[in-house]
Amino acid sequence: MRCPLLIETLREPARLTTLTLADWDLLLPQARAAGLLARLAVLADDLAITPQLPAAVQPHLTAARTLAERQRRAVLWEARKIDAALGPTGMPVLLLKGAAYVLGDLPPARGRLFSDIDILVPKAGLGHAEAQLMLHGWHAAHHDAYDQRYYRQWMHELPPMTHLRRGSSLDVHHNLLPETARLRTSPERVIADSAPIPGHRCLRLPRLEDLVLHSATHRFCEGEWAMGLRDLADIDALLRLGATRPGWWAALLARACELDLTYPLALALRYAQRLLATPVPDAVVSELKLDRPSPAAPRVVGRQSLADTPNQPKTKTDLPGRLGWRWRDALFLRGLAAAHADCAPPLTGLATFLLYVRAHWLRMPLHLLLPHLLYKATRSGHSQ
Question: Do the beta carbons of residue 113 and residue 68 sit within 8 Å?
């Protein structure tokens, strides 16, 4: 990647004290574009090195830290409002991604910025939840009839909702992946294994393994990459927390197999390890073939295990071999560097376009995908 400075400071925050002003001129816009400037400020605070940083840099870090804290308080406020709106329904309401990190007081919440709040409700209660949210001021904004049908017939969520007075954005999910996705998972299991959040009527927190798997699935099955590195940093923080728990890695692999999400987990672990030095055990690297094994290494076929041992996890999805990792690296490393032009290696634009097409290919069969992309392309052309 062409932004080693940002990557290296995330991996080793103590390096911040060695940077010149010219280095900061590169790092500040890169970190801000990637949504990671406040996280760097928090890391510097943790190491008690903030006073050692240049005076010209301090206002940038203070502003980023202040914005992150303001957004954290806003998420807490919105969570209370969502709980008040959906509490009377009696249905479980799971917080996902950033809101889950904040309400669960998890490491990725520190210095994290937010664009919306994500929740997951049972599919059977989706209409009731939408009606209650509308009564409390949320509405689906600026979506034509095609978009409404696209979300409601094929996707794993309602059209994004915006609050009429506060302007807050809310994504209401009923699954982790679209109904038409090539990977199929079980949101019922995620809901069943969630835990209530103290002080709230209906809000619940997914188990840590499920937070990792959802974050990995969201990142590596989606087509927008502006916040790719930030999402990878979230995954890194969750994995480091999990690694402090006995039996964590075995539980994570078993849960990935149970939910059929081994493939996005493998991608997340590979790039978290490569870019952020996430401490992934050798046994997991070998199990998921993250170290580019030879083509003769055991492969998953149907529901055969990675190696013919009865205790190994099982998955429906082939895990990449040497050639598979090569083209994935070419795409994903560019996608993860796409937030700022200074970070982007050659062909990043092509890579992000291919990742966008790949995301749609993963979520829709070809007979639905081609008309959808054609419609989007022609509508975009008409709007210019």
Answer: yes
